[in-house]
Amino acid sequence: MRPIDLSKLRPFYMVAKEGNITRAARKLNVTQPSLSELISDLEYHMKAKLFERLPRGVRLTPQGERLFIHAQKIVEEHEAFEKVFYEKEEEVSGDLKIITMPFGGSEWLVPSLKGFLEKYPQINIKILLRSEDIDPTEGDVLICPLILHQPHLMQKYLYTAHTKLFANQSYLKKFGIPRTVEDLNHHRLIVYRSNYYTPYGSTNWLLNIGIQEGQGSRKSYFEIDSLNGIINSALQGYGIVELPDLAIPLTSSLIQVLPEISGPAVEMYYTFPENRKNSKKINLLFNHLSKKVGLWKGRSN
Question: 3-state class of 51 per DSSP?
């Protein structure tokens, strides 16, 4: 049995994750030829073909998939250990990278961080917005729906976002206030994208609520491929929009329409590696955001 060269596991892991040797080489800060040679050398010593070479990248073989599971565990545990080892618990400072969804990140998280940043000015917040395919290894903290089958992650419930309907007062004054779901058939409707689905429950509920079986969906009046664009469109009085019941709709000039009706709900969790459960920065941020959730819920009830 030939021993696996542990120094080659991280480059292998990066190539497998990226699906492309050139992109992996860029992230590893090495040349593409040297990385290709390293992978070939690993395959030679393991007596196994690990990748299928494709016109635009590479794909794991069955043997490669087995090695990837092993490499992923080692690389992720090593990276998590480094973060814990070098983190100065007596100081609340340094970078804190947060991965979250676009609307929750820009419309709820950003304004919610103000008090936290004032109290801990030595912490540098970095927020990355991801619509789907969130990678738990990409940040220190994830604020996203529950990630199943990940026992190495700590996942603390943070809040539930309910889908509600909103419109600007100028629109409602001109076109009237819908009193029933059926009234929506005669209104101008703003959507992100027709027939749009995501793993987080966004299904253009506005176009389908109350539609009887066999009937077609309502036709949208205005579509824009931007969550911030949806909000701005509603603020301009273009029509009725569906949004999570986060802080912005409740405090802006948007008025809730058909308030007794709720659409899809998404439970959001504060997620981080289990071996960072004693991180002072991570726990302080969770406590701060939990208080913000309590204030938000109190205002919305």
Answer: strand
